[in-house]
Structures are given as structure tokens and as C-alpha cells.
């Protein structure tokens, strides 16, 4: 029993980023057979249907009436629409590793949004971390090719992923400064159901442009996997990490996502690993660590536990 209790926190800490990384790898695997908006709509539809029996008693109690409709709408648009469909569109142009490296910039983008919108002051180390992480993103986006950087040859997949991560950072910052008095699974159901609903117009446009896709077994199992793992599992594990470690330490699990995504992409999808991946990861993780970890000031002694 003691051994299980001791290893459970470590398993939670290591499993949450694995689930987030598997979302990116699965999106890359499905990119040739399922259009991005269709994939996003399928993921949220599966998640909403799976969660409905769990949250139905809360819905019948009218719990959603306690939250302003405008706030819920903004959360759905940021967390369920703009942060998802462009991410799956990016999978058609760039690797799962690059997608994860850009996603690792999220904590620092949240800091920038907090500064611009809510006037939250940040330490010089935060600004240095932002610059260092952005340099890592440039290395990944331009494949370590300085000539491409000078010519500004930007991969469209990396641009789409940056848009998705900006939306996710806005969603995260909004939740932090405008907390929603709802149980976590009910909020997730709102994002899932609302995301699927608001994606319908884009879905019809996609089908009108590309034609209605012929979805086979690969698409079915892929959407089921994304709905269960990315739509519910990753969120649930991360929420458990927050409960076990606190928000600050739990957020550090996200720093492991690029490592998992690069390894899974190379193992399952045959994606190549290059030296610039290591350089980009070192810069991104170094910048995030510099910007988010608080070092004790000289002469300061931490309080005893």
C-alpha cells in the first residue's frame, strides 16, 4: 500500500503530459484522412456524449445559470474552437514534435496576456524567459535554417499552431482571472458541447469546399481516441495533478509534452529527429523554466516546512 501511495503522484505527473502529447501525435496520424474541422468536431462530439450521463444531474439542477452567458461563450470560443481546429490543421503541415514545442510556449504566453489585459507585473526573468522560448520556437519553425529565417519562410502549420496556442493561453488566463463556479467536468462538457456546436458552420464550409469526407475505421477509432484521451483523459489527469501538487507544480507537467511528442512521433509515425529539435527544446524549456521558476533572493531563507 505504501509503495502504491508513493508512486501514484509520480505516475500522475508523468501520465498527464503523455496524454496531451498523444493528442498531437494522433492528429498528425489522422491528418491525411480526416479534415481538421471534421476532426475537431468529432473529438468534441465524442467527449460531450461521453460526459453527458455524468453531468446530466448538474444540468438538471440549473448549475449553468450561475455563470454569465458571455463568459461561457468566450471560454467556448477560445478553449473549444480557436484552440482546437487550427491545431489539427497544423498537423497537415508540420510534425507532432514541432506542434508540441510551440505548445510549450503556453505558460509564457499566458504571462504576456496577463500583463496586457490585467496589468499583472512580471519579473525581468519572465521577460528573459519569453525571449529565450521565442528563440526556440523560431529554431523549430525554421528547422534550424538561418537562411530560411532571413527569407522569412514560415511553415503554415507552425503559424496555425501559434494561433491555436494563443487562443489556449487566452482561455487559461481567463479562467485564472475570471474563475467559473462550476465542477470541472461540467465546465469541460460546456466547452466540448459548445465547441462542437460552434464548429458546425466551419464544418459545413469545409464539406462544401472539400466534399463530405468518407470516414472509415481509422477516422472512427481516431475520433474516439481523441474524445476519450484528449477530450476527457488529459483534462482529468491534469485536474488530479492540480489537486495533488498545486497549480504551480502541476503546470510543470506540460514541459514534458515536447519530449513525449518527439519520441512518439519518431516511434509511431517515423518522423525524423534532427539536431535542431534538441536545440529548440533546450531553448523552449530553458526559457519556460527561467520565466516561471522563482529563485530565492540572496539572503533569503525559505521557511521551514
From TrEMBL:
CC terms in the record's Gene Ontology section: membrane
Alphabetical list of InterPro entries matching this protein: AA-Vitamin_Transporters, EamA_dom, EmrE-like
Annotated keywords: Membrane, Transmembrane, Transmembrane helix
Alphabetical list of SUPFAM superfamilies matching this protein: Multidrug resistance efflux transporter EmrE
Localization (cell): Membrane
Record's bilayer topology term: Multi-pass membrane protein
Pfam name, any one: EamA
Start and end residues of each EamA domain: 10-140, 156-290
Chain ranges passing through the membrane: 37-59, 66-85, 91-113, 125-142, 154-174, 186-207, 219-238, 250-269, 275-293
Origin: domain of life: Bacteria
Family under the similarity heading: Belongs to the EamA transporter family.
PANTHER family documented for this protein: EAMA DOMAIN-CONTAINING PROTEIN (PTHR32322:SF2), INNER MEMBRANE TRANSPORTER (PTHR32322)
UniProt-recorded name of the protein: EamA domain-containing protein
Source species: Teichococcus deserti
Amino acid at each position: 500500500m505504501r509503495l502504491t501511495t508513493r508512486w501514484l503522484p509520480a505516475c500522475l505527473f508523468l501520465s498527464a503530459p503523455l496524454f496531451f502529447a498523444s493528442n498531437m501525435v494522433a492528429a498528425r496520424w489522422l491528418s491525411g484522412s480526416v479534415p481538421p474541422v471534421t476532426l475537431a468536431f468529432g473529438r468534441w462530439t465524442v467527449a460531450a456524449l461521453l460526459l453527458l450521463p455524468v453531468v446530466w444531474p448538474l444540468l438538471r439542477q440549473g448549475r449553468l445559470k450561475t455563470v454569465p452567458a458571455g463568459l461561457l461563450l468566450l471560454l467556448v470560443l477560445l478553449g473549444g474552437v480557436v484552440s482546437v481546429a487550427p491545431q489539427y490543421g497544423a498537423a497537415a503541415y508540420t510534425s507532432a514534435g514541432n506542434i508540441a514545442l510551440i505548445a510549450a510556449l503556453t505558460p509564457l504566453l499566458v504571462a504576456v496576456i496577463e500583463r496586457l489585459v490585467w496589468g499583472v507585473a512580471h519579473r525581468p526573468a519572465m521577460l528573459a524567459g519569453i525571449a529565450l522560448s521565442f528563440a526556440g520556437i523560431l529554431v523549430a519553425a525554421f528547422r534550424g535554417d538561418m537562411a530560411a529565417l532571413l527569407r522569412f519562410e514560415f511553415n503554415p502549420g507552425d503559424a496555425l499552431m501559434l494561433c491555436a496556442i494563443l487562443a489556449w493561453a487566452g482561455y487559461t488566463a481567463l479562467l485564472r482571472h475570471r474563475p467559473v463556479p462550476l465542477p470541472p467536468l461540467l465546465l469541460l462538457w460546456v466547452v466540448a458541447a459548445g465547441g462542437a456546436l460552434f464548429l458546425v458552420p466551419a464544418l459545413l464550409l469545409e464539406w462544401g469546399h472539400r466534399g463530405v469526407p468518407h470516414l472509415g475505421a481509422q477516422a472512427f477509432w481516431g475520433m474516439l481516441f481523441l474524445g476519450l484521451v484528449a477530450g476527457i483523459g488529459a483534462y482529468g489527469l491534469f485536474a488530479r495533478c492540480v489537486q495533488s501538487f498545486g497549480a504551480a507544480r502541476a503546470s510543470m507537467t506540460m514541459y514534458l509534452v515536447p519530449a513525449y511528442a518527439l519520441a512518439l512521433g519518431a516511434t509511431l509515425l517515423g518522423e525524423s529527429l534532427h539536431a535542431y529539435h534538441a536545440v529548440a527544446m533546450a531553448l523552449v524549456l530553458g526559457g519556460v523554466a527561467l520565466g516561471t521558476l522563482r529563485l530565492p533572493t540572496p539572503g533569503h531563507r525559505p521557511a521551514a516546512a
